[in-house]
Amino acid sequence: MITQDMIISDIIAQYPETLPIFKFYKLDCYECQIADLETLEHGAGVHKVAIQELLVSLNAARNDAT
C-alpha cells in the first residue's frame, strides 16, 4: 500500500505503474532530484494536490497492475 509518508522516488521505483498518475496530477517530481528525499505528502502539498485523492489514484494503479 502506498502511504503519504513514502518517498516519491521509492514509490516510482517499487510501483512504476504509478508514473502515469504522477503525470496526470502534473507532479513532475519523478524528474526532480528532490524526489529522493521528498515524501508524497510534501510533494502533493507543494503542488496543491489533494493527498487523499492522490493516494486513492496511486493505490488503484498499483492494484490494477497486480
Q: Could you write a compact summary of the structure shown?
A:
The protein is an all-alpha fold and 66 residues long.
Overall mean confidence score, pLDDT: 93
Shape: globular
What share of the residues lie within helices?
40-55%
- Quaternary status: single chain
For the largest beta-sheet, the strand count, sense and barrel status come to: none
Alpha plus pi helix count:
4
- Tell me the fraction of residues in β-strands, as a range: under 5%
H and E order: HHHH
The tally of strands reads 0
Unreliable spans: none
Secondary structure class reads mainly alpha
**What's the structural domain tally?**
1
Query: How big is the Rg?
Result: 10 Å
- Distance from first to last alpha carbon: 12 Å
Which helices and strands, and how do they pair?
Blueprint: H1 8-14, H2 19-24, H3 40-46, H4 51-65
Descriptive terms for the model:
single chain, 66 residues, mainly alpha, 4 helices
Describe this entry's structure for a reader.
The chain has helices spanning 8-14, 19-24, 40-46, 51-65. It has 66 residues and is an all-alpha fold. The protein has one domain (8-65).
